[in-house]
Amino acid sequence: MTNLKSTNSKSIAVLGAGAWGTGLASIAEANGHQVSIWSRYGSETLAEVVENADAIVSAISMKGVREVATQLHGLPIPPKAVFVTVTKGLEPETISTPSQIWQETFPIHAVVVLSGPNLSKEIEMELPAATVVASRSKDAAELVQLVFSSSRFRVYTNSDPLGVELGGTLKNVIAIASGVCDGLQLGTNAKAALVTRGLTEMVRIGNFWGAKTETFYGLSGLGDLLATCNSPLSRNYQVGYQMACGKTLTEILTHLQGTAEGVNTCRVLMQRAKQRNISIPITEQVYRLLEGEVTPQQALDELMLRDIKPEYSY
Ligand SMILES: NC(=O)C1=CN([C@@H]2O[C@H](COP(=O)(O)OP(=O)(O)OC[C@H]3O[C@@H](n4cnc5c(N)ncnc54)[C@H](O)[C@@H]3O)[C@@H](O)[C@H]2O)C=CC1
Ligand SMILES: O=C(CO)COP(=O)(O)O
């Protein structure tokens, strides 16, 4: 077994000084690594922050990933540097995942996806949590595992980066639906049904994309669903909860602290599912709700009154 204390100090560049970027920076720093954080509002340049980095951690929200990757592309990046992406979103124009953008921009560097049930407020309070680091490169995943592993943060490796990334991304849409469920006070049975059928929907989309089914039953799929579908700390859950309480999406997003990626992800998924004829009924109702086409109650009725069918039809 690896002794966590034996890790050599690494140079870690964190891009994005939001809730999760600063949270991950604190974990790495507490583990004895040299951490620099880059923010578009800060005084340090990207070039200064990534110079000599062993790992470059992108904690940029989806809308900024391509722009930051392009800015970095023109800079001298150490060949040893591993890119770590923690963004949970999809690019609307290309339907690319963040790791695909990083890999496309830096084809010779290893890319690692870090995702799991990691509500940053709880991590900030040093409550225990676990996560997954996944990569096509076993060495890169193990390096990132050592950088972040601690007595408060248990990090597992995984060899299905696409599944791990999609788990964290797709669950955001189900978290919005769960917020609606709680806002309407539909009860525990309804929540259990929603989360379970939500997972089926995630597996269906993930399989279509080429991810492994079992990955969705791990920390980055089921684990993250359980966390975000049951916690008012989740911004995505808050979007659904507040819509069920009568607020408009614009009002909610104006006052929300940080990013609720599920809003954009839901739109991208609907576009993809329509093109490919994939059945995603929960996502479809979340989409219609976000677009103002149905009320929360109508979305519920539409889901309950769908044609009856067998439980399994991936
Ligand atoms: N907060 C959490 O609990 C967790 C968040 N995540 C994911 O991590 C990502 C970041 O989340 P948060 O830190 O919570 O969001 P945040 O909204 O607090 O921070 C986002 C960061 O991205 C930066 N950014 C956005 N567009 C940019 C651009 N064009 N150029 C440069 N920088 C740009 C912002 O300045 C900010 O520093 C999201 O995809 C989220 O889903 C993942 C796990 C946990
Ligand atoms: O992904 C998260 C926890 O794992 C954070 O969820 P929210 O983005 O909904 O706050």
From TrEMBL:
Residues 160-300 form the Glycerol-3-phosphate dehydrogenase NAD-dependent C-terminal domain. It is an enzyme of class 1 (oxidoreductase). Its main location: cytoplasm. InterPro entries: 6-PGluconate_DH-like_C_sf, 6PGD_dom2, G3P_DH_NAD-dep, G3P_DH_NAD-dep_C, G3P_DH_NAD-dep_N, NAD(P)-bd_dom_sf. Sn-glycerol 3-phosphate binds at residues 88, 116, 171, 224, 234-236. GO terms for molecular function: glycerol-3-phosphate dehydrogenase [NAD(P)+] activity. PROSITE patterns: NAD_G3PDH. Pfam families: NAD_Gly3P_dh_C, NAD_Gly3P_dh_N. NCBIfam families: PRK00094.1-2, PRK00094.1-4, PRK14619.1. Catalyzes the reduction of the glycolytic intermediate dihydroxyacetone phosphate (DHAP) to sn-glycerol 3-phosphate (G3P), the key precursor for phospholipid synthesis. This is Glycerol-3-phosphate dehydrogenase [NAD(P)+]. It comes from Plectonema radiosum NIES-515. The lineage of its organism: Bacteria, Bacillati, Cyanobacteriota, Cyanophyceae, Oscillatoriophycideae. The gene is gpsA.
